Structure formats: structure tokens, C-alpha cells
């Protein structure tokens, strides 16, 4: 139970870190779009993982 909560918090922190990185990426003409696409893909994947882990957390809390 606690490990699931810790995992969800860790994923949320990583997501916040990635969003911050995407905001402060160096805006070079060549690498900008590819770097932003990679960050968006990683952020999307982490968002899905976060939703799943929060869903699992709710299930374990509501249905012991």
C-alpha cells in the first residue's frame, strides 16, 4: 500500500521535472522540435502511468 503511494508520488515528481525541462529547453533552431517531441512523448507516457497508478491506488483504498 505505502509502496504504491510512493510510486505514484515519484511518478508525479518525475512528470513535474519533465514539464519544467520542456519549458526551459534551450531553443536552438535544429534541436528544438525533436527535443520537444521527445519530451512530449515521455510526458504523455508518464501521464498515462500516473493515471493508471492513481487508479490502482483508488481501487486498493476503496476495495480492500
Automatic annotation (TrEMBL):
Keywords: Membrane, Transmembrane, Transmembrane helix. It comes from the Bacteria. The chain crosses the membrane at residues 6-26, 38-63. This is Uncharacterized protein.
Amino acid at each position: 500500500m505505502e509502496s504504491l503511494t510512493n510510486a505514484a508520488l515519484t511518478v508525479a515528481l518525475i512528470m513535474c521535472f519533465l514539464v519544467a525541462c520542456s519549458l526551459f529547453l534551450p531553443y536552438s533552431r535544429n534541436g528544438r522540435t525533436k527535443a520537444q517531441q521527445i519530451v512530449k512523448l515521455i510526458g504523455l507516457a508518464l501521464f498515462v502511468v500516473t493515471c493508471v497508478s492513481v487508479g490502482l491506488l483508488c481501487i486498493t483504498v476503496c476495495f480492500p
